[in-house]
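Hi team,

Filling in the usual template for the complex we talked about on Friday. All components are listed, including any nucleic acid strands or ligand strings, so the model treats them as one assembly.

SUBMITTER: L.P.
PURPOSE: interface mapping
COMPONENTS: two
RESIDUES: 326
SEQUENCES:
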Amino acid sequence: MLTIRRVALCIATVVLLATTVPSFAHDDFRVIGTITKLEKSTIDVKSKDAKITSIKMDKQTQVTRDKQKVAPAELKVGQSVVVDAYGDSEADLLALEIRIVPPIRGTK
Amino acid sequence: MKTNPVDSKSAPAHSAADIAKASGIALLVAAVLLVTAILPAEYGIDPLGTGRALGLTALSGAAVAEPVAPPQGKELAPVPEGNVALYPGEYKVDSREFVLGPYEYIEYKYHLAKDATMLFSWSASGDVVQDFHGDPDGAKGDEATQSYDKKPRRQSDGSFVAPFSGIHGWFWENPGGEPVTVKVTTAGFYTIAHEFQFNGKRLAREVRTLDAIPVNNN
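RESULT (copied from the run log):
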């Protein structure tokens, strides 16, 4: 009986950790700049401070232009974009939405 | 007719002892009056309680009761007293200016206890997306976020009473390609401000005490 309780307690602890830890491990980030490199699942964006941030993309990543959803193939090197992403840090970001915007001064 | 002179011998003679006795009684009566009536009425000094019993202390300036201590507590939470809310500390002031580049956003929030009050004025030099909102203490993510006002505005001046303990403030986003400056000034019973930048940076910002306000003697 005691063993069953211990096993149940262990399972409950594991489930609790698995469901709570990821929920506050990520922060929101916005990267604004020009696309410098484009791969199937990664986009590199150069900000106005010349820093290049590499951001992952997945099937859930939305690409929009003028508030309309467009195909990921619309993304091109040299375009100005606003990327809303989340992750633990700027080095580990997953893009939620990539907005194609008119050229932004100072980011080329 | 001849009038008889007053016979000085018929007037009662007072001895020195009688005079001393009368003086002593007079002094005693005066002392009793001083302690029971004059001191309570004039100075609020009432060692025997006769002044209070006779209602004489009300005549003195000491009728004002002992000063009431302000509410105690670590948190700047209001304690209602009729139409007044008292706090265990003074309010704070803050003023910030943010320059938002194209598509940048910022969140700026103050920690307020439940029912604590804040006055605010903010204005933007151009169009902004704004959301005045709050997050309860201990909340994770955006699920518990409560929005108070997200109408399109370039300026807002108002007062706010926190519906719960947590951080309360504004999200401002520049939706266009030109920089926009947002200036916000507040006064309230908050303790600290938090700045959340678009690039993930989070900063705790000190707020100013009333000592920081110069006294206007004009």
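MY TAKE: The longest helix of chain B spans residues 16-43. Chain B touches chain A at residues 101-105, 140-141, 177, 198-200, 202 (CB under 8 Å).

Thanks, L.
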